[in-house]
Amino acid sequence: MNLTKIKGIVIKETPYKDNDKIITILSDELGKISVIAKGAKKTNSPNLASSQYLVYSEFVLYKSTNYYYINSSEVLNMFYNLRVNFDKLEIAFELTKIIYNVTDENQDTSNILKLLLNTLYVLDKLNKDEKLVVAIFKVKLLDILGFTPRIDICNNCSKKLYEDKLEKVYYDYIDNIFLCKNCVLTKDNKRYIEISVPTLIAINYVVRSDIKKIFSFDLKEKYDFELFGQVFMEAISNTI
Ligand SMILES: [Zn+2]
Fold first, then answer.
1. What is the 169 CA–ligand 1 centroid distance (Å)?
2. What is the pLDDT of residues 63-81, one digit of tens each?
3. How much distance in Å is there from the Cα of 65 to the middle of ligand 1?
4. Rounded mean pLDDT, 90-116
5. Per the CATH hierarchy, to which homologous superfamily does domain 3-77 belong?
6. What is the 158 CA–ligand 1 centroid distance (Å)?
7. In the chain, which residues fall in CATH 2.40.50.140?
8. Which residue in 58, 93, 117, 221 has its CB near the most CB atoms, within 10 A?
9. pTM score
């Protein structure tokens, strides 16, 4: 029997037979995998906790035909505060659903796992604006997946976008590009959103920073950042 040791978090549970379930794990080394957790619904199962949604564990797995099976497991983080707070749990559902849709088996998901764990940690332990946390998560996730447009200059005329902090900049979500005030004039206003330069600087910070540091900034006006996170995600979801 070939055993594989991984670390991962359960992002989905699917009922399967009486005492078994199929869990989807976002792992550090195998990408998103389906694992049959045999007997995991029994109260005396050693894998009872580790096979639950949103629990981060170290697993020893073996593969047989199309599925992995759990040989043994050890819980690393339960995210306890999150699972007893319905609003936070709902946010976690949104995050894991997004991740489920953009990941695959055998993909390098180590950074996506790191991002999810850091985001859940912030929601679990810190008192941060939750909408902003979700928006930061989306911006960083899309950056890891390679969708970040050029942020520093207008995509049409190459004008620097950071220079005047009182100016507005424009995100064209059809083409996934940033534009300056002049270049957006001729465009249909149904294809772009207006955001402030401090917001653009915050977006740049999230893109450039290590995953561990992306939540350590604050914005006076959070609305533009939250709107951008949402629109950016929707724009990319339509293309993948
Ligand atoms: Zn321009």
1. 9
2. 988 889 999 999 999 999 9
3. 55
4. 94
5. Nucleic acid-binding proteins (2.40.50.140)
6. 6
7. 3-77
8. 117
9. 0.93
